[in-house]
């Protein structure tokens, strides 16, 4: 998800629409409401944001500092209409990762976000998982060396599962990553439909279901085929599920019903 901040509604709505056409969820906020939101948003929700795009704001450097206090992994990109060395230096000092000159195409912004995240993690723009190669630059994955064409939502879900491989992720986390935090007009249960279709496509190519699901715990990517997994792997899966369930129990215990 990408959050666009600008004083002009036409700009925020325009960029949100353009990103959506590229299969990237995005939302637009005015500077005032953004400052209130980013200061109060939960840790789980802030992790769903891949990048912040700062347009015309009177206090962009201050907003960048607030973002950096909440997130060290999301890319922060500022857009300038006029060149100003002093302003550019101030933005970099505040924690901005990149400053670009408008107009700029959303595909270039997406490419810059991916490049920033790659440099931060030292990772390539793809990950090999078993017999799959999953890309993070908009390309369809390869399964057994052949391209598997996927609808954009299913491709984004697969990318998110790969990014969190080895961990259980729930429906809400997937929904926030794929559709964004402000998609109130879309039912969260749509995730189940997308995952069901994705599992069928992958099962057809791989010969087994690579997505393991557990009620109340969520989804987890399975790297190897069932016949390749042994007792140690099964024990590891049991331990991960137990840890996930314990974590959820502790979360509920911290927020008792009154």
Task: Give a brief description.
The chain is of the alpha/beta class and 258 residues long. The C terminus is likely disordered.
CATH superfamily of the largest domain: Winged helix-like DNA-binding domain superfamily/Winged helix DNA-binding domain
- Work out the radius of gyration: 20 Å
Residue share in β-strands: 15-25%
Number of domains: 2
Average of pLDDT? 83
- In order across it, which strands form the biggest sheet? 2-1-3-4-5
Q: What's the end-to-end separation, in Å?
A: 34 Å
Q: State the CATH architecture of the largest domain.
A: Orthogonal Bundle
- Inertia-based shape: elongated
Give me the number of helical elements: 10
CATH C-level name of the largest domain: Mainly Alpha
Elements, N to C (H/E) = EHEHHEHEHEHEEEEHHHEEH
Would you give the CATH topology of the largest domain? Arc Repressor Mutant, subunit A
Helix content: 40-55%
Based on helices, strands and strand pairing, what is the structural class?
A: alpha/beta
Total number of β-strand segments?
11
Largest sheet, described in full?
A: 5 strands, parallel
Low-confidence stretches: 228-240, 242-258
């Amino acid at each position: 998800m990408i959050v666009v901040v600008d004083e002009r509604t036409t700009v925020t709505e325009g960029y949100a629409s353009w990103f959506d056409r590229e299969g990237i969820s995005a939302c637009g906020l005015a500077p005032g409401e953004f400052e209130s939101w980013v200061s109060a948003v939960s840790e789980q929700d802030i992790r769903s944001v891949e990048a912040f795009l700062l347009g015309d704001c009177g206090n962009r450097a201050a907003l960048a500092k607030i973002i950096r206090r909440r997130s060290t992994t999301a890319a922060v990109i500022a857009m300038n209409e006029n060149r100003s060395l002093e302003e550019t230096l101030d933005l970099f000092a505040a924690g901005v990762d990149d400053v670009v000159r408008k107009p700029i195409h959303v595909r270039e912004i997406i490419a810059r976000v991916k490049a920033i995240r790659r440099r931060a993690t030292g990772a390539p723009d793809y990950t090999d998982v078993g017999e799959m190669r999953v890309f993070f630059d908009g390309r369809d994955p390869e399964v057994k060396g052949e391209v598997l064409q996927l609808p954009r939502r299913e491709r984004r879900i697969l990318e998110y599962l790969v990014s969190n491989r080895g961990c259980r992720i729930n429906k809400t986390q997937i929904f926030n990553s794929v559709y964004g935090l402000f998609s109130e007009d879309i039912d969260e249960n749509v995730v189940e439909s997308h995952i069901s279709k994705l599992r069928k496509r992958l099962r057809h190519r791989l010969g087994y279901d690579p997505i393991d699901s557990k009620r109340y715990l969520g989804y987890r990517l399975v790297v190897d085929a069932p016949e390749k997994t042994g007792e140690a792997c099964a024990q590891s899966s049991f331990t991960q599920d137990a840890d996930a369930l314990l974590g959820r129990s502790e979360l509920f215990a911290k927020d008792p019903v009154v």
